[in-house]
Amino acid sequence: xxxxxxxxxxxxxxxxxxxxxxxxxxxGCRNKNTSTPTSKGTSLDSPKGKMTYRTDPHTxxxxxxLGFDMMKLPTQNNDSPSDSNAPIDQERVNxxxxxxxxxxxxxxxxxxxxxxxxxxxxxxxxLSRHPRNSYLLSTQLSNFNPATWSRKASQEMFRKSxxxxxxxxxxxxxxxxxxxxxxxxxxxxxxxxxxGILDWLVEQxxxxxxxxxxxxxxxxxxxxDLLLQWHDEGKYHFDCVLIELNxxxxxxANEINPRNTDxxxxxxxxxxxxxxxFVMEPLLGGCLASLPQSVAMELKRKDSQKSITSxxxxxxxxRSGILSVLSDLTYMEQLKDALLSYCPLxxxxxxxxxxxxxxxxEEMVGFEAIPCIDCKYCMPCPYGLDIPAIFTHYNKMxxxxxxxxxxxxxxxARYRREFLIGYNRSVPSLRQADHCIGCGECVGHCPQRxxxxxEMKKIDRFVEKLKQGMS
Length: 471
Description:
Helix content is 42%, strand content 11%. The chain is α/β, with parallel strands linked by helices.
């Protein structure tokens, strides 16, 4: 029987505050100076030649179960890795790609929207040093801006992708963020139907310039269902679909955000049609790598030899209909940790799946963090805010049970000081929440449908109270 929302919140709050401090298992992958923990006595380096592969049912091609998502690449601004304006550190990207290829990762996924427009070029520079038949390339048609909705502009975007990636073809092309906007069907029609771009992309598939055509989904389920109806009717054939899937969003995506759809439904509909699923956000923007203390302790009690992230990685890859799990691998320790889960994959047992669904996900769903996945689609802010960094700091303090709430609490003064000092270190003063004017430019780009201006106002008010010493 499920506990109530209030009961889960109360349990998590008391357990988080009262629990003993965990060490590196709670640090997650957000800090580049934090090594990802491994099982006791286990080397972080995974063995070569052990990668688990899935077979693409359309081509028989082997696809690495771990895919390298090039959405968050290392920058030259080491002190602020979340700075989307900083130039990409190409040498470090090359090192990551070389290591990944050497350990069997053959799928690399990018988009014109990633890394403030720098990802495709960095990806092309890194991969072009290797034979083209040694890797698979995925990119997206990211024509979010109405200025790119014309046939010519969308075609130019795709051709630019090929140029930046230094390739004559892409293995997987996704229509980016289907389901977004206040009127998703209207937006979809403007982006892909009225301009004839979807038909044009189908022609590119026939020519072999695109090997597989699919869409990535966020948001309005009616559009997801419509596209699958078109697939069933033969109007458009989709070779693959990219969905969010992790053990929290399997049953609780809608509770985290009312406009999202549970992964159980999305995956089930694709499985019925034998459409291969690609997975994004296996760690839910790092949230499943940096868990509330009480939840992390439950995972360690279940199996002290497994890392916190390995539970999420193995969960994302266990179902047979999943072709590849795309993970952000900004730092070498993140890459090595992910490889340990897929070289080879040890699928979760039925009892382990039940444990994650019932004992872990049910506890976490009532925890009132902001559902930001740090994708940076909201950036750049026209007024200079570092929106992801603001949310990341708030969520970190929330997840660790160190939000200063009541001035009479014995730890209030310490938590207040930690929050303010950490906030100023994480986010430069000119990029903090108090500079939000509520323009709403960011809202339409957020795949999680976060009411960003409202959240900024709440955080700003909270920070001001802390500065004044108010409860």
